[in-house]
Amino acid sequence: MTLVITFLAAAIVTALWYAKAPNNDMRLGTLALMYWGATLMWCVDGFACLAEGEGFIEITDTAAMLDDAVLGLLVVAVGLAAWAIYLVAKDPKKVLRKSLV
Fold first, then answer.
1. Cβ distance 85 to 96 under 8 Å?
2. Which end of the chain is flanked by fewer CB atoms within 10 Å, N or C?
3. Residue 29 to residues 19, 33, 36, 45, 92, Cα–Cα distance (Å)
4. Burial bucket for residue 18 (CB in 10 Å: 0-12, 13-18, 19+)
């Protein structure tokens, strides 16, 4: 579930980034790269599970699926928080500079 949730977040943000491509004020490409990196990380984790003889994605245990879903949502939330910190640091619209001056 973690892989599915991060993949969906990456796909949605990538579509938004592509729709807003000429205007890159909100740096959606950075957020998309964060989510694609997380998706790649979960894919590597899935392949490591396959190498150990386990399943790629756990779908038999409901409690494990719920835990994975919560972890996936947490990853998406932490990605949004990191992106917000990045936006405040970069200040692409110069809002922070105007308010401090």
1. no
2. C
3. 11, 6, 10, 24, 13
4. exposed
The whole-angstrom distance between residue 65's C-alpha and the CA centroid of its chain comes to 19
pTM, rounded to two decimals: 0.87
Going by C-beta distance under 8 Å and a sequence separation of 6 or more, which residues neighbour residue 46? 3, 56, 57
Burial class (CB in 10 A: 0-12, 13-18, 19+), 19: exposed
Of 39-48, 51-60, 67-76, 88-97, the one with minimum mean pLDDT is 88-97
For the stretch 10-38, pLDDT in tens is 999 999 999 988 888 889 999 999 999 99
Confidence of residue 2 (pLDDT cuts 50, 70, 90): very high
